[in-house]
Amino acid sequence: MNVITFNLYVVRHGQTYFNIYNRLQGWSNSPLTDKGIAGAEKTADKLANTHFAAAYCSDTTRAMHTAKIILDGNKADSVKEPTISNYLREEFYGYYEGNDMDQTWYVAGAPHGLPTFKDIVTKYSIGKAKDFLKEADPFHQAESNEEYWKRWDQGLDLIRNDKNIHDGDNVLLISHGNAVLSLVERFGEGKYDVTERPANGSLTKMEVSDNQVKITDYNVQ
């Protein structure tokens, strides 16, 4: 069987109201702001002449809205609609969905002497931050690192198994801040700073094959 390699253009969704309010929005949602719509349109302009053989996004409205803006602005005869999958959602923050981001990471990290998300990631990893949050969740429903990757690996396999994607093709994926960071931590070979979140509308590029993923660009604005 021939192994194909394709280019995955991973775009973080446009700015939302929860982004402004510094609130966690994993499986919860808030609409794109006017700035978020304008930012998505700017990204659409940059990608207008890139042909996408397939497009994917999570089933959150912020991702679907961003995908529509980018695909509607495409002039390269790309696919018109994204494939929508809950496998591609942001991390689930459980009890802390919608909470202030800094307060939540304090609750998760402070028992370990690490009061900020950056502190946790610097000493351990984004994966450990997920595990600390699950531990802090009184319902223990926030996703652990293992649970998160079990879901996301299904999402990556969904894309890999798309019969419309051929060797050398470009594929669009509208994603989320922590999801992008998690991909870059796992596949970036330590070359990128994952203590800082990617900007809304930014582009991260990956080369994906059946058995390998390589980050080639991160947080391009």
UniProtKB/TrEMBL annotation:
Alphabetically ordered keywords of this record: Hydrolase
InterPro entries assigned to the protein according to its UniProt record, in alphabetical order: His_Pase_superF_clade-1, His_PPase_superfam, Phosphoglycerate_Mutase
Domain of life: Bacteria
Protein name: Putative phosphoglycerate mutase
SMART domains attached to this UniProt entry: PGAM
GO terms of biological process kind: negative regulation of glycolytic process; regulation of pentose-phosphate shunt
One Pfam family in the UniProt entry: His_Phos_1
Cellular compartments per GO CC: cytosol
MF GO annotations: fructose-2,6-bisphosphate 2-phosphatase activity
Residues where substrate binds: R12, H13, G14, Q15, T16, Y17, F18, N19, R62, E90, E91, F92, Y93
Residues forming the catalytic site: H13, E90
